[in-house]
Structure formats: C-alpha cells, structure tokens
Amino acid sequence: MVDNRNNDTPPGPNRRQFLNRLWAFFGVVALVEFGWLGLSFLNSRKERNKPVKTESIVTAGAVEQFTPATVTAVPLGQFYLACLADGSFLALSRTCTHLGCSVPWDEEKNQFVCPCHGSTFNLTGEVLSAPAPRPLDYYPVRIENGIVKVDISTPQKRGRFESTQATRI
Amino acid sequence: MPKSRRSITDLILHLHPPTVPEETLRFNLSWGLGGMAVMLVGLLFFTGILMLLVYQPSTDQAYTSILILTREVPFGLWVRNIHHWSANLLVVISVLHLLRVALTGAFGPGRRLNWVIGLFLLFLLLSSNFTGYLLPWDQLAYWAVTICTSMLGYIPFCGQWLQELFRGGAEIGPATLANFFVLHVAFIPGTLFILLLWHFWLVRRAGGLVQIKKNDAPEAPSPRVSTVPNLVMREAAVGLALVAFVLTLAIFWNTPLLEQANPGMSPNPAKAPWYFMGFQELLLHLHPVFAVFVWPLLGAAAFLCVPFWRDTALPTGVWFGSGQGRTLAAWTTAIGVVATLTLILIDNLLLGSATAVTNTFVTRGLLPTGVLMVLSAGLYSWLVKKLNYSRAETVMAGIILVLVTLTVCTIIGVWFRGPEMHLVWP
Question: Taking CB atoms and an 8 Å cut-off, how many pairs form between chains A and B?
Fold first, then answer.
C-alpha cells in the first residue's frame, strides 16, 4: 500500500518558510513601487520653476557708455557689468557664492558686500573676505559692433579671476 | 460620578495613569514645561486650521491672502498673532523642557527612547516653525528660503540633489512654496501628532516623572494620589494661564510682515529667524561645509548618543544632581558666556584683516573642529580625573556649555548684528 500520509499532515516547515518569504518579497516590492511613485512625482516638477527665458542674450549697452573701473547693474539680466581698469568687460552674477543672497555694489568702498553673511568681493568678483568660498560666477561677454552683449544661459563657476574671463574690445 | 463625566475621566486616564506619585506633582520639579508645550501645540493646530481657510499657497497669491487675512477677516490679525507667538514660545519652552530633562537626570535607563523621540520632536518643531516662516512669501520668507536651500547644497554627496528636491527644481519658484506648504500643514503636523502620543505613552510606561531615589528606604514606595483631580487640575491651571498669556501677547504685538518677495534685492541685514540665529553666527565664522553639515551632525550625534553611554544621567529628581553639580553648572555657564564672547570678538578682528581668505577649508574648518575635539576630551578628563566630578556631572556641564554657547550666539545675532552683519551696539 502506498503511504500517502504526507498529503494529510499540515504544511511542512519548508512550505511555510517559502510562503513567508514570498510575502516578505511582495512587501518589499510594494515599498519599492511606492518609493518609485513618490520620486517620479517629485522629479517631474524639476522643470516647473524654470523662468520662461525668451532670450538668453542680454544687450547691456554701447561700449562708450561705461567708464573703466566702474560697475553697472543690469536688472534685466540679473547681473553686474564690471568695466575693469584696462577697459575690458566682465559680467558678474549678482548671486553670492556663499548662500545665494543678492549682492549689492558699494560704490564708496569699491566692493560688493553681501548683506547676509558679510562676504566682500572686489571689482573682478574675487573674494576679499570670507565666508564666501569662491569668486562670484561670471557670464560670457561678446562685443558686437561696439555693443556689449552677455549670454546669461549658464553662470560660469571659477576658482579665481583670469584675464580670459573678461572681454576686450 | 455621572456617566458622561466618567467617560471623560476614562479618556484622560488613557494618557495618564490612574494615580501618580505625590512628589512628582511639585511644580519646581518639571515647571509644567511639557504640559505647556502640549497646550501651545493645541493652540497652533486650532489657529492653523482657521488660517488654512484663507491662505492661498501660490507664489502670486500667498502675500495678498495674508494681507486679506490681517485686514479683512474678523480677528484675522489676532489669529495670525496667536499662531506666531505660540510657535515662537514653543521653541523656548521645548528647549527649556530639554534642559529640565537633562538637569534632573530624566534620560537614564527606561527613558532612553523617549529622549531620542524628544529630540526628533524638537527637530520637527523647528522645521515646522521654519516652513511656516516661508509661507507669507514676503521678503523675510523669500530670502530665508534662499539661504536655507543654498545651505543644503553644501552637504557632501547628496547636497545638490537635496537642494533640487526641496526647491522643486534648480531655482526657487512655485514648486518651492508648494513643497513647504505641504510640509507645514500635512507632513510635519501628522508626524508630530504620532510622535507626541508615543512621547506621552513612554512617560507613562517609565512610571511617570522622575522621583528622588531614597537610599535609606529603597523598598518603600512613595505615596500616590489620584490623577483626577490632583494632576489634571494642576495641568489645567498651568495651561489656561499660558493661553491667557499668549492671547494677551497677541493683542499687543503684531507678527512682522515685510514687503512682497523681491528676488532682486536682499534686505540688509538679512537675518535668519531668531531660533536659527546661533546657526547664522556659525556661518559667519566657519567654512560653510562645517557650519552647515559637520558641526550640526556632530552636535546631533552627541545629543542622540548621550543616554546610551553608561552612567551619563544625573541622580534622578534632584536639580543638577547635587550641590556640587549646581556649582559646576554655575561655573560652566559663566565660563561659557565669557569664552563665546571672547572667541566671537577675536574672530571678528581676524575676519576684518586680509589674511582671512587663504584656504578657509583648513583654517575655518578642520582646524577649529580639531581644536574643539581635543579641548572637549581634555576638559572631560581634567574634570573627571583631577577634580573628581562624576561622568554624569561632566556630561551635564557639556550639555549646558552647548546650550549657553547657542544662547549667546543667538543674543548676539538678534541684537548686536547690524547692516552687512557687522557687530554693532543696539
């Protein structure tokens, strides 16, 4: 006679173990699904804050308008146009490299002074006093037919000022 | 007892045990600080829900909706003021609560998890305060969110990702406000509520508040009295007095509201909310990676680990553990104030000189961190080995020193920093 007792006994440890693992697996899958769902939801909004830039080239003005060793704010492009002592042009981002405050130009002290944590920068955007860790970002400048044009699509990071960052006539 | 009254009593007895040890009722054990915090949270939920009916969480309407709230809605100004003052008072009360717990030895075995939960509650509460600060979308809000999300950018490895996550993109805009709105009205209050219930339950499970350990008769339990009315009446008295205080405060002092957010111009000086002013003072002196990431991480780790180090809790129920502990605490406070002031003044001179720029990661990061570590280790062994203080007393001195330093930095930031964050006389 064939022994078929095995079919009547309750499920053995192997089967129980297998089912428990299966449930655990489904639990993990559910967690991953919810995580993925949340992350894609959050990631989808990355583009939402981008301001609508119709033009990334901003016209700052004619070369003759600027005197050497002065700084002119260009509110339209949210940058400063520094005319250096030798007459070359450097477009500086107005965002402090420390924590993103807007840095005003102090005419009397001849430097940029951050109102949030007191960092100061000179005419070429280099750090005069901490806590700012690097010079102000700059934008590429082009001079076409005596008109200063600035490409504000991406601010350029830099470790220090070099004369190649400024544009001569 | 009538049935209706009975059911209310039963509800209270889910949070409190039916009887409490009589000695834990004395006011100068707890100063009612935990109860006060609960009361303030209640006020915050109530006024918050009211304001939710008027507030519009979008960048072009948020500011106007606050103006409508304060000018046109009946009692709108008062409701906003109550919310503001409760929130600010809650920060003070919670820090005092933490100090009380530390100084009466209430984080020892059996209460460790609750200390950790308490720290998380403090973190949630500061986040809640800060996210609320951003919602009016005025100049204060805009520049606070700019600075705060830029700070995230300095965290190693995932900083950029975190920054974009909280900003909802590379730049600050509508998605940023949506983020902070959801955090403020849904995520944080929900988490806070769950953790609060857990916090209360763990107090009950630990046998209520800390009691003085009696050496002569350890077996004799201290006499117990019934919770209703003994404890509940006391709680109600403290809570209602506090509500009266906040409501009065909110009549006479208005919550600040600056002009609408202007991305082109930071206010000068641009200050953080007062409870982060100590943090801002660190930012003035340290390299950003250390001010934003390393030091807060070290501080948080130290506070979280304290109860898991053996014998760090003071004798329970006695302030400062003993008379000797009280003297040590007084000395620590005095030395902490003087040392912090001296350091800030000296570094202010150094910052003014031109030499400050060279390799700040080392001079304003690694170097001060190393000095701090060596100094703490040295002070610890000096106090324990030479002056024979116990480990618990030394740890207490450390906690006091951290809080004193933060307080001094906060006071300097609030009253002694003027335009361009220079030191000024108020």
Answer: 114
Its pTM stands at 0.88
Residue of A nearest to B289 (CA): A133
Q: Quote the ipTM score.
A: 0.75
Residues A167 and A88: beta-carbon distance below 8 Å: yes
The residue type of B152 is L
Q: Distance between CA B32 and CA B234 in Å, rounded?
A: 9
Taking only the tens place, the pLDDT of each residue in A99-110 is 888 888 887 888
Q: Where are the beta strands (DSSP E) in B27-161?
A: none
Q: Is B239 helix (H, G, I), strand (E, B) or coil?
A: helix
Q: Say whether A75 and B422 touch across the interface (CB within 8 A).
A: no
Is B155 near chain A, with CB under 8 Å?
A: no
CB atoms within 10 A of CB A130: 24
Domains and CATH numbers, chain B: 7-213+225-265 (1.20.810.10), 268-426 (no CATH)
Cβ atoms of residues B344 and B285 within 8 Å: yes
The CATH fold of domain A57-165: Rieske Iron-sulfur Protein (2.102.10)
Contact (Cβ atoms closer than 8 angstroms) between residue B284 and residue B409: no
Radius of gyration of chain B (CA): 23
